Structures are given as C-alpha cells and as structure tokens.
Amino acid sequence: MTSHPNPYLAVKLSIIQERLRQSRYSFNLSMVATTVSVLITLTGAVALLSNQASEGTVTAACGLTASVRCIQMTKDANNRLDKILADLKDES
C-alpha cells in the first residue's frame, strides 16, 4: 500500500480495495456455482424426459434451487460494487 498523508484516507482506500476484492471473488464463485447448477438442472431434465420422474424431479428441483441462490449471490456482488462506486462519487 502506498503512503498517504491522511491516515483516514489510507484506511478508507484499504477498505474499498478489500470490498472490491471480495466482490470479485463472490462474482467468480457465483458464476462457477451457476454453471454447475445449470448442469444439474439439465441432468434433471434429461432424467424427466427418460421416464425417471422421481430422480429427475429431485435433480431438477435441486438445480433450480441452487440457480436461485447463485443469482442472489451475483446480485449481492454487483450491489457491493455499486456501493463502492457511490462511495467514490461521494468523495469527489
């Protein structure tokens, strides 16, 4: 970290950088989880179409539930980035 004449500004910058790092990791994790969830959902759909209804129903339901959670995680990561942007605009 570079030295700043104002220690408050240095702490604030450090917090903003950490928020940004966490948002990136959350977004990347949610993208991986969404991909896995889509694959699970497709597997469930194939099981449903091949007359394995009970297994297919459970698999599809699990996949859809995971998809909803992944979408929420992505939205939360984007909201954190929006908050960082708003904080930076307030400082200007």
TrEMBL record:
Entry's transmembrane regions: 27-49
**InterPro entries from the xrefs?**
CyanoTRADDas_TM (IPR048567)
Which Pfam families does the record match to this protein?
Answer: CyanoTRADDas_TM
| Ranges for domain Cyanobacterial TRADD-N associated 2 transmembrane | 18-81
List UniProt keywords, sorted A-Z.
Answer: Membrane, Transmembrane, Transmembrane helix
Record-given protein name:
Cyanobacterial TRADD-N associated 2 transmembrane domain-containing protein
Question: Could you tell me which species this protein originates from?
Answer: Tolypothrix bouteillei VB521301
Q: What is the lineage of its organism?
A: Bacteria, Bacillati, Cyanobacteriota, Cyanophyceae, Nostocales
